[in-house]
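Budget justification, computational time. The allocation requested in the original proposal was used primarily to generate structure tokens for proteins on the priority list. As evidence of use, we reproduce two of the resulting records. The first is shown immediately below.
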Amino acid sequence: MSLPETEKLDVLVVAPHPDDAELGLAGTILSMVAEGRRVGILELTNGEPTPLGTPEIRKRETDEATRRLGIAWRGNLGLTNRSLEATLENRRKLAEVFRKIKPTLIFAPYWEDAHPDHTAATKLVEEARFWAKMGKSDMAGTPFHPARILYYFSIHLRIVERPSLLMDISQFTRQKREVLEAYRSQIVDNQPAGVPGVIDRVLDRNRYWGIMAGVESAEPFASREPVGLKSLRDMTL
């Protein structure tokens, strides 16, 4: 895995599998890119095997989604799909990424989920964030502590999200659909006829949260720590 050599990233999205980041926050990623922020995505696994995919298909789809997002960097940590664990070895690997690219903001999967890879990823991100700041260590990179983790929803539970904040993505809903459509093998070609598919359900939820925020469409995020505002003008309602 090659890392950015010359510039750190402002934001890093950590995803258990390809497409998790886009399902949870493609609109927010597009918004941050439009603002000029350097955004990266790090998958922990390649997401294979799946019933309709192959490593080659998944890579082509991920490359196309990356192009549509316009992000600065994307990498894969090369851990094992379906067997992801927050081991000491994996914690070290992820902490070294944090120390090298120094993202101020990290997005991680929401901590409650039915998918073991997703909950393992959350634990791994939190522990690697702590490890990344340690001095007197033989880990690659220099000590660094990412300022904040926000948690996005790409979950396998039939629950209503419990967000701490909502991000207005009204200007980016069409582009979000286009990004998601890059993952044809997983969320386009295999959808049953006569019922809303994955993409429509995701965008419907975004519209629901938009109503809650007083905008057309919004993505929900949770935080374990308080979120500060410089001005109440940042609130839409």
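The second record produced under the same allocation is shown here.
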Amino acid sequence: MPSYKYLIVGGGMTAAAAIDGIRELDLAGSIGVIASEAHPPYNRPPLSKALWKGASLDSIWRAAADDNLTFHQGRTARNLEAQNKRITDDLGTVYEFEKLLLATGCGTRTFLFGQDEIIYFRTVDDYERLRSAAEHRDRFAVIGGGFIGSEIAAALTMNGKKVIWIFPDEFVGSRMYPPELAKSLSELYRERGVEVIPRAKATGCETRAGESTLTVHDNQNDVDRKIVVDCVVAGIGVQPNVELAQAAGLSVDNGIRVDASLRTDNPDIYAAGDVASIFDPLLKEWRRVEHEDCANTMGAHAGVAMAGRTVSYEHRPFFYSDIFEMGYEAVGEVDSRLDMITDWKISCKEGVIYYLREGRVRGVLIWNIFGLVDGAKRLIGSATSTHPSDRERRLPT
């Protein structure tokens, strides 16, 4: 029976950061990692960004190796006995621990059709499968209007592929961006050669003789379309992997709930990264953040906390994306249902968008201007003037 001072469930960015955090304080304590993927930890964002712009696959891997660190790869934790400090994996192996970190991340949402015919883009294996298809095929359908859909549609297009992009909203990013920016982005994709099909939903997929026939319902015209492509890739959202924690009786509500020390209900069990939900005192709500900065920072805090340091997680993570030659960074709640103030230096090219509720900033989107993230973090929770000429409480543009 493997026994560890520190046991981590999950082998991604959060786990890698937690290992580094533990080793800041404890150089010798045994660490075990139960990881469902067969790979060592790696950075996930380059899979839909930098690797399509020439970066090497070797650049994504995280350094995580020492004499007292053991990876159990290709294993899935199935049962957690919180009081007995034991975990059982899918092969029946039982692991004992003193401190446990749940860094189980999220699982991809899938359609009820298509089975293995659709690439649900999230892991390095998904990247390699899509990259292989891109080396031999020309026609691609991308389903989903979020981060993955927008980045993959742009990446494939920049690599010379014919792309059809299907998503349910009126314009690209309608759920995040102000209307003029969402409309402008839709036109940009079309100018780059992407066939954009908004207000649409994929309802079926069949593959024969190497071709995939995608059935798409066009809600705008209330008709079904048949789209024939060489490959279908989808990013239709994720859901937190909370089953292990839930079955063990830990508090779960859109993620595993943790306090400021990143502890769950059990003082020897921690959670961090995509799967963790923590109360935000400035926004006054429980939040679960699915981005790289959160995985790295929260994982590092959890690691040092497990090793004995008192922590209070107050970091405000940022996130970013690349679309063709443009990029943006954002902090807080970026939701087009909130009140928005747009402050353009160049309309829909460079500027800052403020997201407010009851006159207080809940999120900031910095479009194609860089170096302003720290200032944006300081604005969260503050009152901001709605008058365009008042620059006192705004970021520079």
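A brief technical remark on that second record: The mean pLDDT is 94.
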